[in-house]
Amino acid sequence: MSDPQARAGLAPDAGPDDLYEQARRSAGDAAAALALAPRIAEALPLPGSGSTIELWEGLARLGMIDLTVARTIEPQLDARAILAEAGDDAPCGTWGVFAAEGPGVRLTASPDGDAWRLDGVKPWCSLAAHLDHALVTAWVDDSQRGLFAVDLQQDAVTATSGTWVARGLPQVTSESVEFAGVAATPVGDAGWYLRRPGFAWGGIGVAAVWFGAAVALASALTSAAGKRKPDQIALMHIGRCDAALHATRCTLRQAAADIDAGSVDDPGLLAARVRTIVAQTCETVMTAVDHGLGPGPLVGNEEHAARVADLHLYVRQWHAERDLAAIGSSVV
């Protein structure tokens, strides 16, 4: 069982330890994690507030403990940061952020007097049936999307079910939601959601969760070495993981320092680079652990098997070669 006192090594402090003990007790239980989410959000700083590395340490610690918990809580932190960046307060309750697009579906926003209405289908809405509110992007014309705060308890909001068959993160269902004339409140102007620096900082926050899971996964190698004297191959796997995690830790620390100093010229490029470094480290660690430990823990250790499946799915939010090509286009 993951140690809730364990640190990811990014910062010495990330809120009260008792919250991480509660996170450990919520492992594998999205409903329990949702109940804890508002308290975690209150305990951790906002990105860019001067304590960004403490925020990322907190997210990494959640990732070390359990990815169902971390994946459930992270959007709550993101929603709070988005609303703070817009100069708004987040009403009480649980929040999601639904900003993905998908083929064959479209969500539009139309003015209705002094208000706005949302119509259509939004894909990839994680835990929509269990949340109180969400920040949702919708098309306001043919080329621009706006961001809207939505009360998900309205009768005109319908969350689908039954299409999520993932073996990783099985409780964090991400399915489509239908909106039929749903009342919504605009947050920022058209295009603001993607233009703001916080969009990049939130993307790195997700990568901090991946990093925490990779730290926990790599610890399985060192734990095995403590039970049986490692041979040269085992030591090579341990060293490979250690070097990759050290480089990633340094990258996250430097990124946080630059963000807090206000010295980032291109937030999107920084986020793309950091997310790529973290994702590649996760893939390095997953491969090394698989090769070093073989099938045993994948079939006989529930926590290990769940972490591998969860991380494998979660890190696919990094778009691999497409993101690398985007970085390349930014630097030539």
How would you characterize this protein structure?
The chain has 3 domains: 17-85, no CATH class; 95-186, Butyryl-CoA Dehydrogenase, subunit A, domain 2 (Beta Barrel); 194-331, Butyryl-CoA Dehydrogenase, subunit A, domain 3 (Up-down Bundle). α6 packs antiparallel against α7. A hairpin with a 5-residue loop joins β4 (133-139) and β5 (145-151). The protein is built from 11 helices and 7 strands. The N and C termini lie far apart (47 Å). With 332 residues, it is an alpha+beta fold. The radius of gyration is 20 Å and the shape is globular. Strands 1, 2, 3, 4, 5, 6 and 7 form a 7-stranded mixed beta sheet that branches.
* Main β sheet profile: 7 strands, mixed
Number of strands: 7
Number of domains: 3
Structural class: alpha+beta
Distance between the termini: 47 Å
- According to CATH, the homologous superfamily of the largest domain is Butyryl-CoA Dehydrogenase, subunit A, domain 3
Estimated share of beta-strand residues: 15-25%
Q: What pattern of helices and strands is seen along the backbone?
A: HHHHEEEEEEEHHHHHHH
CATH architectural group of the largest domain? Up-down Bundle
List key phrases describing it.
7 strands, Butyryl-CoA Dehydrogenase, subunit A, domain 2, 11 helices, 53% helix, globular, Butyryl-CoA Dehydrogenase, subunit A, domain 3, 332 residues, alpha+beta
